[in-house]
Amino acid sequence: MQVNFLDLKSVTELHGDEIKAAINNVVDSGWYLHGEATRQFEENFARYIGTKYCVGVGNGLEALSLILRAYKELGKLKDGDEVIVPANTFIASVLAITENNLVPVFAEPRFDTLLIDDSRLESLITERTRAIMIVHLYGRCAYTDRIGELCNKYNLLLIEDNAQAHGCCFGVDGNPSDVHTADICQNDSSFFIPHSSFPRTGSLGHAAGHSFYPGKNLGAMGDGGAVTTDDKELAEVIRSLGNYGSSAKYVYKYKGENSRLDELQAAVLDVKLKHLDEDNAHRQHIAAYYYDNISNPNVALPVRLSDANNVYHIFPVLCERRDALQSYLKEHGIQTLIHYPVAPHQQECYKEYSHLSLPITERIHREELSLPMSPSLTMDEARYVVDCINDFEL
Ligand SMILES: Cc1ncc(COP(=O)(O)O)c(C=O)c1O
């Protein structure tokens, strides 16, 4: 059997007719930027996430970067301020910080959750700390009450990198039945009211950056991103910054950039947003099978969170002989990926941080392997993956 890590063609086919109809509507409209499709998606996405505002931007990196840039324009951040960020994250979380002349302070994760370790954060706070960026890595909710309390205590901005966790909630006693498809109510105006009793990631901090890179849980058919926030002023500055620095035509308050979500991507995303909870429920179903059946003592699984708190963008396992496991699975036709082989502080572009010793982060980057996971993965494929893993010998 051949099992792809992620088969985007079959993911698109899940809602293919609706997606094609939405694209045709945009093509026929003759309006490709700053139009009704983007406005509609922004409104629906803000409602889904549970924030007052959503600003569509070009991609996830720009979403994070524009949040920080906007805080600088608003006088809440300045060059040299420190932003605490998990050391085990995709490079974009860190790039957003450094490209704004801010200083990343790398926080170790917990090995069992793979998420930022809130018990280590207070010791990292200095006079220059102004923000914490949490990353809901792999689709797992990274927020904790303790993080919220620290932000209040030290008056820090809380920024969420929600690139990997669309649809995830924060709720300690999460019960999946509270947040799933059963709660989605569709009507003629074609949208749902999320009845989740838990707040969603993307609404937990002061602002959140989202990526709609095609492989994400809510993926476009090209690049796309968004910022969600309850802060009107921040949303307005981000909208101007992404529009060359202008809020009125040919009047430039800021030295801005061009970062926008186009009409085609917005129309596709609006269709996929309607199916997001259903697609996430499928991921959760596959993940439950992995959790219940992977029993190889040489393959460790991260702590199992409630489905409310995990939308399984990635299903990571940890293995001391990760590369051997990956080759073995490949020989059996199973494609896996590594998220990520090298930690940001060990990348050539961040030589200035290469002296840091972050043993938990480094171990995760050495041992992590991502199993096939997507809304179109079949149970037969999942069974085959589990059988092969259980037969793997060190
Ligand atoms: C955690 C994280 N942050 C930021 C990004 C950047 O998003 P984009 O690729 O849309 O720029 C990604 C994804 O690529 C990501 O996984």
Quick recap of the structure?
By secondary structure, the chain is of the alpha/beta class. It has 12 helices and 11 strands.
The parts where pLDDT drops under 50 for at least 5 residues are: 174-195
- What small molecules accompany the polymer chains? pyridoxal-5'-phosphate
- CATH homology-level superfamily of the largest domain: Type I PLP-dependent aspartate aminotransferase-like (Major domain)
Total of domains: 2
Number of helices: 12
The CATH architecture of the largest domain would be 3-Layer(aba) Sandwich
Beta-strand fraction estimate: 5-15%
Explain the overall architecture:
The chain is α/β, with parallel strands linked by helices. The chain has 2 domains: 8-274, Aspartate Aminotransferase, domain 2 (3-Layer(aba) Sandwich), CATH 3.40.640.10; 276-391, Aspartate Aminotransferase, domain 1 (Alpha-Beta Complex), CATH 3.90.1150. It has helices at 8-14, 16-29, 36-49, 60-73, 91-98, 145-153, 232-241, 263-274, 276-293, 322-331, 359-367, 379-391; strands at 53-57, 82-86, 103-107, 129-135, 157-161, 207-211, 225-229, 246-248, 251-252, 315-318, 368-371. It has a 7-stranded mixed sheet with strand order 1-7-6-5-4-2-3, with helices on both faces. Strands 8-9 form a two-stranded antiparallel sheet. Strands 10-11 form a two-stranded antiparallel sheet. The chain is globular and about 65 Å long. Mean pLDDT is 94; it is low at 174-195. The structure holds pyridoxal-5'-phosphate. Pyridoxal-5'-phosphate is lined by residues 59-61, 89-90, 92-93, 135, 161, 163-164, 211, 213, 223, 225.
